Amino acid sequence: MPTGTIHREIDDQYKASARALVAQMTLDEKVLQMVHGAAESARLGIPAYNWWNEALHGVARAGVATVFPQAIGLAAMFDPVWLEKVADVISSEGRAKYEAASRRGDRDIYKGLTFWSPNINIFRDPRWGRGHETYGEDPFLTAECGKAFIRGIQGTDERWLKAAACAKHYAVHSGPEALRHHFDARSDLRDLWDTYLYAFEECVVDGQVESVMGAYNRTNGDPCCAHPYLLEQILRGLWQFDGHVTSDCWAIKDFHDGHGVTSNMPESAALAVRRGCDLNCGTAYLSLLAAVEDGLIDEAAIDVSLVRLMTARYRLGLLGDVQDQPWKTLSFDLVDGAEHRAINLETARRSLVLLKNNGVLPLRRESIRTLAVVGPNADNPAALLGNYNGTPNDPATPLRGFIETAAPGTRVLYAEGCHLYNPSMTNLSQPGDRISEALACADQADAVILCLGLDAGLEGEEGDTGNQYSSGDKQDLNLPGYQHQLLEALLDSGKPVIVVLLAGSSLAVPLADEKADAIIQAWYPGAQGGRALAQLVFGDFSPSGRLPVTFYRSSEELPDFTDYSMKDRTYRYMTKTPLYPFGFGLSYTSFSYGPLQVTRFDTEPLDADDDLMARRNDPLIAVSGQVTNQGSQAGREIIQLYLKAPADVRFRQAHHQLRGLAAIELAPGETKSFRLELLRKHFWQADDQGQRAIARGVWQIDVGGHQPDERSIELSGQKTQRVTIEWSCAAAAATFCF
Q: What is the rounded average pLDDT for all residues in the chain?
């Protein structure tokens, strides 16, 4: 059941009400309810409703809202508990904005309660422009963040959904943007189950997300919005999903225009509905009238989708008696109010990742009399926001953050240094025309804050960016324009240089790694990002963010962008040494771990013929230990547990995989205990038939503040704690455990 805590009998009542309502509709009325801009039916008492709304990191595209760090920054917190709090704020603001708009008869796009978030696609290639909308490259982290976001959006009420979340884009979707309307993403069944479907299964089965959005592309030959294996066998069959499925926007017309699997719009619309796509973002489903007339689809199949859609509206309180809804009295003044801004500031602080520090940080306020804040992103409001964003009341760029946060009397100098992507600031200027100004500022300063990177005009969705030559994707991982030359010049200035990267994806910055005094990955840090950044630099808190993606040394290390095999991709399968590894991030304090203890649960083993889905969440072992803050500053440690499977040719062998998380606050000298449970599903791997099992043999378990890889150990100076556990099946001849 996709509705969280809603009781079964209440949900059955909603479905009965939906069936009764659909039974009264004419075919014309039904079709008009199946497009995102659903029409009013005064005869049946159905108000107009626009299903299309966005809430990726705040209520989007409908005016003022709290703008949190972009999704990739939310993932960098490695803290699903806090992320759920963020999503709860988003849904409260969404409810308050919905009530204010609907009372005034405003039922326009971006005003509803069906939020088409989160984006749980796997950020498999750093060139993908929409990667910053995701929770990174790891299936487990993506799943944990996705479930937390869904809980916060949908709420815990026993009768109503606070709002509806949507897991997108199902499935095997991560670029290239320019090809998405006709591209066939090919994946073998091992990668499909181990990588591309993992987070969707978690968000549907355990997260109980209300809706799922199909992707534009084909997967293994079939369009995702009419995919017999993905939609019928897996989503509705194996996972028992009974929420609604929506298409991506105008994806249905791609069936005939791009993929060539149908001949015209009625055929495309009929195919999508028959396969289980209930709602059309676009107008293709208006052709269902012709499809019924031509015998391409029965009205009964349309009714199935209509009941799902009307049930969702009843669950949300958009139809029927809604007087006792707990959110109708939410006040509009909470939107981007003081309480939510405070949560946003703390969120931005938790999202920042310290990648390098030679001891220059934190800066001592009293010793900095002149500070140079330099770079094309130093005062670029767009670099705070990412995409799919709302409008903040009081955004703080890095420049503003340092002006506000520096000690009284400190002079803050500013120079843009170069254009974000063009070689010069004006058409008449020579390339690099603002570098001399930046050097003049550096000459006067005690330290330089150099803000480089991208914004959502350079990486994003097809059609939304100014990066038209690659439709929103990046051609490479290099700093664009003259940013590299600006970096070179300032690194040679003789002054301490703190490089701040504002970008939604990894960049290749080996020069900064070699010569800069410190590097901070700030993502698109939201409206409070500049304040959080300045507070980090001045030591008001210790950084705790971790990388949800790998930082590669160059684009040449990457496989072909159109190759969806996971070979040589992400920390799980790459063969080269990264610049900065997934899961890595420095602190101003240091943490030590005691020995690990492993406890086995008395869990009955399964046979191959047992219902694996029913037992997927059986606890198998618990790993416990203690962590101590050995430094002189309070800090938050991100405890990470990684599993490495025994070698078996039937499975795609990963180096190790994240399978446990905990964020712990520790005062100086304080020790706390932790305990992480590993469930049956955490040990599953898929074979080449897509069948999942647990390999027999010795499994390696590593726990620490980072991966157990050599580069993380080199950068952090610390090894992980390691234990092993052996799985053997009851039957002597058994190959797998289940």
A: 95
CATH number at residue 731: 2.60.40.10
> What are 533's two structure tokens?
């950044």
Please state at what angle helix 483-491 crosses helix 435-444, rounded to 10 degrees.
30
Known catalytic residue: 191? no
- d(CA 241, CA 235) in angstroms, rounded, equals 6
544 within 8 A of 351, measured Cβ to Cβ = no
Q: Which of 211, 290, 280, 273 is nearest to 33 (CA)?
A: 280
> Are 549 and 483 part of one and the same domain?
yes
Query: Terminus-to-terminus CA distance in the chain, angstroms?
Result: 25
Give pTM, 2 decimals.
0.97
User: Which residue range(s) make up the domain with 600?
Assistant: 591-737
Domain count, the chain: 3
Q: Please identify which of the residues 88, 125, 191, 248 carries the catalytic annotation.
A: 248
Distances (CA, A) of 211 to 139, 161, 204, 512, 550: 19, 12, 9, 43, 30
Region 667-690: mean pLDDT is: 97
Q: What is the pLDDT of residue 385?
A: 97
For residues 232-266, b (16+ Cβ closer than 10 Å) or e, as one string?
eebbeeebebbbbbbbbeebbbbbbebbebbebbb
DSSP state of 257: H
- Report whether 630 contacts 587 (CB < 8 A): no
Rounded Cα distance, 226 and 603, in Å: 39
Confidence of residue 138 (pLDDT cuts 50, 70, 90): very high
